[in-house]
Amino acid sequence: MGQESSKEVARYADVAMYDAAPDTRANEGFTLKPKVTLISMTENPLRVMAAGAQLYAGEIIHYPTQISNETARRWFADMTKTKLQAPLEFVHLHFLIEGVTRAFTHQMVRQRTAVYVQESQRFAVKRNAKFEVAMPPSIAALKEDDPQRVIWDKAITQISRAYVSLVDSGIPAEDARGLLPTNITTRIHYATNLRNLADHAGMRLCSQAQYEWKQVWAGMLAAIRDYGPEEEAWQQYLIASLFKPVCYQTGKCEFMAETDRACAIRGRVMEHHAAGEGPDKWTDINSMEALFEGAARVRPGGEDG
Q: Model's pTM, two decimal places?
């Protein structure tokens, strides 16, 4: 149906239109969740980083293979203790992120230190929209016959039918897309360097970030750890360990206003801060606690501080 319908809508609307590739997970009945693929990453990333850093010590490196594991580890540790982190920018990462909502990508592209290529709703006809609108966790947790979930399901079905009907009648996709929900899922390529990714992680691994960010970051961490040959996995695991909430960068919670969301670790973070104890002393805190579902939706009096 895809190729035939594409020709038909092009004849009536816009020659650039095409049927978006459906998300097979939705067609098979699975709940849509973000899927992260690390398409490419700098080979021997920590040795490449250390090759640049060695110039700080007056040593000229021509090949990453000249760098020992010990030297690479030492420079990586130093890069986490200084603001002179330029060598981290020599490590590049290119992700493909699928099954994320347009709400998510609206936030993601605000990071200006990255490159993006996103599936276009102007031209990609979302014929499968009914099944490719991500259901938020508060609604997904409800039974199928719960009145609130029924409202959601009916609205999505009606919107999808109206959208497809407009496109089939000759309305360009770039006009009909105005009907699509913010939670319609999409695909986006995301390329950045290690320094900027670590900086971005500070805000997006914090409890303040919406849950979808936490799902994506869990996928990104897994993709980084699994990338490359097994014998070089130590580099990937060290890189993954770099990503932590912003409080690990500043030593205190940066969201203390009454309007800020709850936090599962805020109380412990501020106790350590008051005692003059930096993040290296936070043995009672798991830096990934903010990734847990509900970390920022704790009832008043039930959060960590």
A: 0.87
